[in-house]
Specification:
single chain; alpha/beta; Dihydrodipicolinate Reductase, domain 2; 6-stranded mixed beta sheet; two-stranded antiparallel ribbon; 9 helices; 24% strand; globular
């Protein structure tokens, strides 16, 4: 960036779209060992993701809007960038998995929910998936960053969980909730995910990114 922009200090750090936080973290620990080949995600996104409240967005009451401009394109392309690699100063996208999405705006204040369908090259058992989710941790957990959730991925055994109203604030809104893992007739498995879009997906995620950059020595 500094070479391109002609600057000597600072940089711009970006984070992923908030809708990705509702399903990409659940796929991440399954990628290398079991090789996800394709995924379908239907996201049901809260109005705060549009910068709205119920008072400022009356048309959402008793309604579902089946279109969020630009969201589906981001949700399909950005994971491949995240799972890609750097060659020189260019990000080379991963070539798999194939991802397709639909993104809907729903009358929920906070919390993006995703219905996820996934297939694998090496199909794991249900028990192996649950163990991968339970054991998954990343650099923020290893470094014990202040904003990092202790348990990033949390699986609920109840049939009616996760729910936005009950589970979006788990670990200060920085954890991801998962439920309803079961085999599917078209894909290998299906499940439901939930993340807090303005905490994990936006402001809190940005703070966590800043903590990570500081811990890695990127700040002068």
């Amino acid at each position: 960036q500094r070479k391109r922009l002609g600057t000597k200090r600072g940089f711009i750090a970006v984070k992923s779209n908030c809708s990705l936080q509702s399903y990409v973290p659940a796929l991440a620990p399954l990628m290398d060992k079991y090789k996800v080949t394709k995924a379908l995600a239907c996201t049901y996104q809260a109005i705060s993701g549009a910068g709205k409240t119920f008072e400022s967005f009356p048309e959402i009451l008793d309604n579902v809007i089946p279109y969020i401009g630009g969201e589906e394109e981001k949700s399909e392309k950005e994971p491949l960038k995240i799972w890609g690699h750097i060659e020189g100063d260019v990000i080379v996208d991963a070539t798999a998995p194939a991802i397709t999405t639909q993104c809907l705006r729903v009358p929920v204040s906070d919390g993006h929910t995703a219905a996820v369908f996934v297939s694998f090259e090496n199909k794991p058992s249900k028990e192996e998936i649950l163990k991968a989710w339970k054991d998954f941790s990343g650099v923020p957990q290893e470094l014990q960053l202040p904003s990092a959730p202790k348990q990033f991925l949390n699986y609920f055994t109840e049939d009616d969980r996760p729910q936005a109203k009950l589970d979006r604030n788990l670990e200060g809104g920085m954890a991801v909730s998962i439920g309803r893992l079961r085999e599917d007739s078209q894909y290998d498995y299906k499940f439901v995910c939930l993340s807090h879009n303005t905490l994990r997906g936006a402001a809190g995620g940005a703070v966590l990114l800043a903590e990570l950059l500081a811990a890695k020595g990127y700040f002068d």
